[in-house]
C-alpha cells in the first residue's frame, strides 16, 4: 500500500488465497483512497489468465509453502505474465541449510501431534522451541544452525496474522539447481539474487573462491551457485528471474562497478560505545546491528543516517569520504566500495537506480505513510506495515500518536500538537507536550514512515524550536535535517563565509574582535548584538555574542543565539559546536552529542569541536568515548587548555587514578593559573591510594601559593560592627541549592535556623533553578544569584551586603567560588560539608568539622583552623525510602555486600581487601551500584580487575539503579571505600538498616565513614588497619542472627542519634558561628 501511495501512476494487483486478508486489504485501500490497487482472492493453482503483463512480479513467503506441482504452475504463470523487460522476485528455502529447518519443524510438529486446532498447534510449537534455546547438547554438530532456524521459525510463529501459525511449519525446500531447472521450464532465466554479494565466492574466503572456480570450471552460473550453497550451507534464497529472451543479457556474476551508478540508503543509527576500542555499533529499527571498526565506514554510515529515509548517490558518499579521510579519487573509491560491500553483506543498506520516493524535493508537506493508521496500538492487535524500502514495520502506536501523525501530515504546527499531547506533567523542564512530539518524530523518521523534502522537515522543526524558545527537544532531529540538506547540496565541509559588511560596520566588527581577544566580553557582546541586528548573516558576531552569554552563565540566551547562528550558518562547524556546548551545560546531553558529532563531521581536525563533544559524552558517563574525544583534541592542538583540564576530570570520573594524577600534573604545569586544573589535581590527590596526608596537603599549599595568595593585595579592612551579640549576617555560598545530595544535610540546618539571631544570605551559583531551589529560597532572607558575577564582583557584592560570617559549602567541587573567598570579602569565613576537607586557602579562617574528621594532631594538614562540632553534619532522609527489609541473607543463604560508590574510590587497595573478604566467604556476593557504571565498558573493567584478584564475574553484580532503596533492601552489609571514604550513601545505608565497616585513614575525606558511625553510636565498625577491616566484616557476616537484629534496630538507633538531631545540630552550628565572629571582634580590638 505505501508503494501504491508513492507511485500513483503504477498499477498494482495483489493476489491472496485468504478471503480475510483480502477483505482487510480492501478496507485499507478504501481508507487510503487508492485507485491504482486491485486485490484479488484466488487459489494459487488457478490464477486469472486475463490480468495482462507485469513489469515486476513479487512472490514472497509463498513458493516453499506450495506442493511441487503448484509451485511449478506458479512459476509458469509468472513466466507467461512477465513483460519482456520485467523482473520476477521469488524467495524460498534451499538445501543444504534448510535441513536444519526440517529438523526443527519435525521436532515442533511431534510436540504438537495431539493439537486439535491451529491455535493449539501454534502454542505447542512455541513451547517446544525451548529445546533449541537451552536443550541442545554441546556435542551437537548442527547446534548453531538449529538455533538460528529455531529463532527464525519462532519469529514466524509470533507473527500477528494467521500466516504465523501452522504455515510456518509446513514449508518445503529444494536445491537451488532444482529451482533453476524449474524456472527454465517456465521460460524464465536466473538473473541473480537480491542480495548480490551472497553470490560472490570470494566474500567467503580465498579457499572457498578457489575451490568454487576449480569445481565449476566451464559450468553455468547456476551450478557455480549450487556449489557455493554447499560451501556456505545456505538455507534461503531471494532469486531474481527474467524472461529467457533476455538470458544473454544476464551477467555471469554481479558487476560491482555498477555500485557507482546507484543511490544508497541506510536506517542505521549509532549506539553508545560499549567496548574498549574505537569501534562504533549501529542498529536499525529491525534490530539488525553491525559493529564497525574503521573510521571510513563509520563516515559513510553517518552520512547515510543523516539522509535517512532518503538516499544519497555514490558520488556524494565518495566526496564525503575523500573530504573526511583526505583520500584521492582512486583510494576513495576503493575504500567506499569496501564499506558498501560490508553493509551489503550485513543486509543493512538499500540501493536504488533512481531517486527513491523519500527523495522528492518538490514536496511542500511532510507526508505520513498510510500504514501508520493500521499499525497496532499497545492494547489492540493490528497489522504489520511496510515502509517504502519494503522493510517490515513492527511498531505499536497509540491512538493519540496516530492522531498526532495525522496532524503533522495536515500541516499543524508542533506547538499546537504539543498542546494536544500535553499529559499534564512537565518532563525535565521541557515545554509541555514536546517530549511526546519529539518521541513520535523520532519513530516516524527511524521507521521511514514519513516522506518529504529536507526543507519541509527543517521548516517544521525550526518553527517548533522557535515556538518553544529552543526548549523543545527537537534539536537532534533539526541537526540531522540540516545535515541532510547540506549533503544534498554537496556542502561537505565547514562553510564559514561571512556576510560582506559596509565600511562603518566593518570597523565595528574589527573592534568587536579586538575586544574579544582582550577578554573584554561585556563590550564585545554589546557590539556583537548590534552587528547581528544590522547584518544577521555575519557569523563572527553570532559566535562572539553566544560566547559572551556563555561566559555570563546566561545559558538560555546562549542557546537562543546558537540556534539563530545555526539558521544563518547551517554548514559552519562553529554553529554546531556552540550548540553542543549550550546543550551540554543545560544537561540536554543526547542532543548535545548529536550537535558535537556534526561539528566534527564538518571540521574533523578542530580541537575545540572534539573538546565540546567530550564534554557532552562525559555528561552521559560515557567516559571512554569522552577520553578519546579529549585526546583527539590534544592531538590537533596540544595546547588546548580545556581538553587538557577535562581529560583529567574524565579520568577521575572513570576511576583511573594513576592516569588522572599524571594528567592533572601535566595540566597545572601547562596552565599554572587555571583553577579548574588545580581543582582536578586536588581531587586526584584526595583519591590517591598511596599518598600520605602530608603529600596530599602539599598539593593544597601549592594551589594556594599559585592562585590565591597573590590575591591578598585585594584585602581591605572590614567595617562591620564589632558587637558579637547583635544579629549577624551569615552568607552561604554554594552551587548546590538545587537537586543535590548535599541538601540532605543543608536543609535541616536552614529550616531550624534562628532567624532572630541570624540574617541569612544565599549566594547561589546556579544556571537553572528547580523544585529544590524553590523549596530552599524561603529559608533565606536574601537570595543572590551569582552565576553572572565574576569573583571580583561577587566579593564586592558580599562586602556591600555587610556579611559577618561567610560559609563555603563547595570546597573545590564544580561551581565553587573560592576566588571570591580569597579576596576576604567578610571578616570571618569558614568552610563546611561540601568538600569535607581543607580548601587549602589561607584566606579562610575555619573549617567546621568534628574530632573524628580532624583529630588532635592533624591540624597541620588543614589551612583553616578546625572547629569541632558535636557531629560533622545532620541528616534528613529522602521521602519514599520505604521500610527496612528483613535480612536478605536469611532467605538467600549467603551474604550480599554492597557499595554505592563512584568508580574513583575503588582502587588497588580496596579491591585487594574486598577480594580477600570474598575469598574467605566463598558464597558471598558483592553489588556495586552507581552512576559510574552506566557505561558497559566501566562494568567490564571493574569485573576484570576483580578477576585478576581471583574473584569470578558471577560473584559481582555491577549496575546503576536509581533510587537505590531496593538495591539496599536486597543487601546485607555495606563496604566503605578507602583511603577516600564514601559519603551520603553511607548514611543512607545506615538508615536502611545496613551496617558498614570503614577504615579510618587520612584526616578529612579519609575519616567520613568513621565520623558518621561515631555520630550514630556505631564505633565498633570502625577499623584502623586493612586487616582489622577484613576481620570486622567477616565477624558481621558470620553471625546472621546478630546481623538480623542489627538490621531491625539500626534505623531507630540512627533516628535517635546525633546524626538526625536537627535542632541540636543547628544550635551547635550557630553557636560555632557566634564564637567565630566573637573571636574576630576580640582580635580586632
Automatic annotation (TrEMBL):
Family: Belongs to the glycosyltransferase 41 family. O-GlcNAc transferase subfamily.
EC number per UniProt: 2.4.1.255
Organism of this sequence: Achromobacter arsenitoxydans SY8
Record key words, sorted: Glycosyltransferase, Repeat, TPR repeat, Transferase
Tagged with keyword Glycosyltransferase: yes
TPR repeats mapped onto the chain: 607-640
Domain spans labelled O-GlcNAc transferase C-terminal: 719-878, 892-1066
Methyltransferase regulatory domain: residues covered: 172-242
Domain of life: Bacteria
Stored InterPro entries: Glycosyltr_41/O-GlcNAc_trsf, Methyltransf_25, MeTrfase_reg_dom_prd, OGT/SEC/SPY_C, SAM-dependent_MTases_sf, TPR-like_helical_dom_sf, TPR_rpt
Name used for this protein in its record: protein O-GlcNAc transferase
Single annotated GO MF: protein O-acetylglucosaminyltransferase activity
Pathway linked to the protein: Protein modification; protein glycosylation
PANTHER family, sorted: PROTEIN O-GLCNAC TRANSFERASE, UDP-N-ACETYLGLUCOSAMINE--PEPTIDE N-ACETYLGLUCOSAMINYLTRANSFERASE SPINDLY-RELATED
Domain Methyltransferase: 3-86
